[in-house]
Amino acid sequence: MDLTDVPVEQLMKEIERRLECQNKPEKRMILLGPPGSGKGTQSPIIKKDHCLCHLATGDMLRAAVAAKTPLGIKAKETMESGALVGDDLVVGIIEEAVKKPECKNGFILDGFPRTVPQAQMLDKMLAKKGQAIDKVLNFDVPDEVLVERVTGRWIHAGSGRSYHTKFAPPKVHGIDDLTGEPLMQRKDDNAETLKSRLAAFHAQTTPVINYYKDKTQHDFCPLDSVFRSFQAE
């Protein structure tokens, strides 16, 4: 990689960051929370503070398929057949991802596990490496707050800039501040779709929350396992 055009100050900051990361303890974290609960906002902050890699299962699946890894090829065949990608494939792709250098200090898992069997498979995979999940952060936000957050979101398609009708409105309603182009809403950012997604989330993920709470209470997780619940009014 040619670094001749990179400012010296930027290079020094990157060196300082890498030196700081060498002294950070390893952490393996799971973020649990429904759509719109703030996981996407908090994960980059946690990632930077603890020098972790951020693992989102959807992104990892797409990357594995694009890279044509053995697991990616299997996942593509499964998806093209119209079937759901099995838990064993997803856990295998996670196992591949955590071997990357950027995951040396640990990882944040976002969007997985969603069921107790997935959590158990993840635990077994990590146990083979002598590792375990250290912290589970549960973003506990009332459904009515989530509906307000999500249905008020507007996006500038070209840049990904986001706005909110109440919390971060554009200068002109429906118009991007920088380009003057119209804003859009994602197809699933409506109350009916969100309520359906929330019902599915609560049905699937409440047992996962209880699973990790139980492991913490009975010291089944080594290291400094903590289950934390963040509540928003």
Automatic annotation (TrEMBL):
Keywords: Kinase, Nucleotide-binding, Transferase. Coiled coil: none annotated. Pfam families: ADK, ADK_lid. It catalyses: AMP + ATP = 2 ADP. It comes from the Eukaryota. Its EC number is 2.7.4.3. GO terms for molecular function: AMP kinase activity; ATP binding. Gene3D superfamilies: P-loop containing nucleotide triphosphate hydrolases. The keyword Kinase applies. Residues 153-188 form the Adenylate kinase active site lid domain. PANTHER family: NUCLEOTIDE KINASE (PTHR23359). Belongs to the adenylate kinase family. Catalyzes the reversible transfer of the terminal phosphate group between ATP and AMP. Plays an important role in cellular energy homeostasis and in adenine nucleotide metabolism. This is adenylate kinase.
